[in-house]
Amino acid sequence: MQALEAMAASRAAPASSAPASSAPASSAQQVPTALVPTAPVAGPPPATVPASPSALATQPPARPGPMPAPVAAAPVPAPLPTPVPAPLPAPVAAVPQPVPSQPVPAPPVLPQAMPSRAVPLPFGRAIAAAALRRGDALLLAFDDSRPPDIAALRRLSPLLAGVEAVEVPGAAVLRLPLAPGAPTPALRREGEGGWVLLPAAAASPAAALPLDQEEGEAPRLLFRAEAPGRVIAVPDPQRREGQAGPQGLLLLGLLPAPARGVPVARDFPPFDLLATGQGVAVAVRDPSTVLRAVREGFAIPLATSGPLAIGPVSAGHLAATAAAIPRLLALPEQPPAALLEQRRATLAALIAAAPQERGGLRLDLAQILLALGLGAEAQALVQLTLEEDPRLAGEPRALLLGAAAALLAGRVEEALAPLDDPRLPATGEPRLWRALARLEAAGEEAPEPAVLADLDRLAPLLLRYPPTLRDRLLPRAARALVEGGALRDAAALLEEAGQAGAPVTPPYAFARARLAEARGDLPIALASYEKLAEGRDRDIRDRARGRIAEAGLASGRLEPGAAAAMLEAAIPAWRGDGRELARRLRAAELYHQAGQHESALALLEETAQLFPDAAEQVAARTGEALLGVLADPQTPVLEAAQTFAQREAELPPGPALEAAAQRIAEGLATLDLYEPAADVLRRAAAHSARPAPLRLRQAELQVADGAGAAALETLRALPGGRDRAAPLGAP
């Protein structure tokens, strides 16, 4: 760098207006000019200038002598705890900042606020990990034998102020206390870097690990996962109710990135499967419980007898589960012909009844219409009933009937409000309908873990519904369970529905194909999808076309570019909702993976015009596609430089931006366009967390262009650059 500074100084010297014989004096005058803020300061003041520039801005104008006085008076905040009654005296004495006005119920080691962006952790991208919330703490486990540096971790972010190590030989296990009720940070891998902690609101859901049950000579529960890591044992920080004796034990299955976890917890007699954000976690109850890493993922061996004799989900088990769920609606379990006859009889009784006695009969009739699958008619009848008899407005049956009918009619927003009414029971049948409504409201997005947990527990009730209503609701619930990883429960639902006489309709066939795909039976799944893609059910036909592309990609039959083209070709078949948006974004992602950045960019720009409400989501992907175009060697360098200048604000900062800027700058330099090349690097350095390499190359290009003075200013802008540059101007 000193050689570069000397070259820059030599290039800058001819630009001076002084004669050549006085060049050293001119250089000596340039340096103090650049360092004007420090020139008039002598003695102690230089120490105060870098110490707190924001504090100087708040001081009254200017008495230079007393300036050190506020620094010496730093103990002034100390009297603050004195007048305060201080319900938590120890934390107040330990923290020299002002105390918040509201009481802080959490211990002082808890984070005061969630971070606004990612908190990097010192664990590389290839290290397998597990993450789960246990009580009021987040457990993080990494396959790293080095002891974690707790002091260094606590300095990374206020979120990690209370982090502590859990002694587990051969692994790094951290326990991070969280405030009660606080959202759980998510463990993710950021770009091509290592692991980071993200605020829950900023993290996309982790992919669900499918849980299946295999029978035969060696029965087992199997979490299907690619590239499973090893299994470690960790002391359980949370005791079960009534537990006595030694501390419990957790078995953690570690997984490398990307994020894959278990969204729904499940309890078995010998062990508990815990919900995780990454990896697999098993809380041991019976000492014979084992979690093993196998080729297909993680397995828990079962047995045909003894504590680990966990049989498959049987029809009897589902029937017993359904019978134990509290009911609010008396939906008649009858075939359509019997329901039509019951509707005729109820309508006759309604006509003969006195006007003030018709409310209950109208609700009975609405219940029959709902059982027939006539949602719009049932909802209209419930609304008429409440208008003529307001006394029924708060009745739980009326609330649930109106909500269920609205959901069946496709009016999800009208169903959500009554289902959240506190007058409805929080458990049982209303909770099932609430989960079904939230599932529909989620659209193409992954359902929330709470919704999946409710469906897992309550979906057996659908088997006791009238056939018309059952066949409308059960395939969607089974499909959601498959997508949430509950393969064993989804398979049991579909099998029991088939034994109960459910017809082989496209929704049922699609749910079974999704189950086969999740189990790895891709030939069976693809054959079913191809058949459904030629069917008459428009919704299922479109979904099957999308799954053909995804299954072909997963099986290796399709390259990402071909799968993206297939998804884009299917867009005209389904327009105007979240499914089209999701398909567009997925196709653009696959184009990006295939290196077809121009196609991805064109699709995203069209999507931004069609879906203005998703502008933020589309913009992030557009920036990535833009960087792909700029970094692509096939993009002409002059075109890339022009695009960089015009759309700089859309480019996300990071290593990809720096690499694209360096490619453009080097291409311009080969054309002897040194000034625009240096300008590209200057713009990229302004967005970089490590600008020094870009700034150094910028200075080299400025020297090559003969702009020595500009090169000196670039070098002086580097950390410590002014200190090193100052001697160059000395006589």
The total of beta strands comes to 18
How far is the N terminus from the C terminus? 20 Å
Counting copies of identical and different chains, the oligomeric state is: single chain
Reported for the largest beta sheet, the result is:
5 strands, antiparallel
Mean pLDDT over the residues? 83
Describe this structure in words.
- With 731 residues, the protein is an alpha+beta fold.
- Helix content is 47%, strand content 10%.
- It contains 30 helices and 18 strands.
- Strands 11-12-16-15-14 form a 5-stranded antiparallel beta sheet, with no helix packed on it. A 4-stranded antiparallel beta sheet has the order 2-3-5-4, with no helix packed on it. A 4-stranded antiparallel beta sheet has the order 9-10-18-17.
- A hairpin with a 5-residue loop joins strand 9 (211-214) and strand 10 (220-224).
- It is globular, with a radius of gyration of 33 Å.
- The two termini are 20 Å apart.
- Residues 15-108 and 723-731 have low confidence and may be disordered.
Short summary of the structure?
The chain is an alpha+beta fold and 731 residues long. It has 30 helices and 18 strands. The longest helix has 18 residues, at 538-555.
Characteristics of this structure?
alpha+beta; 731 residues; 5-stranded antiparallel β-sheet; globular; 4-stranded antiparallel β-sheet; 47% helix; 18 strands; disordered C terminus; 30 helices
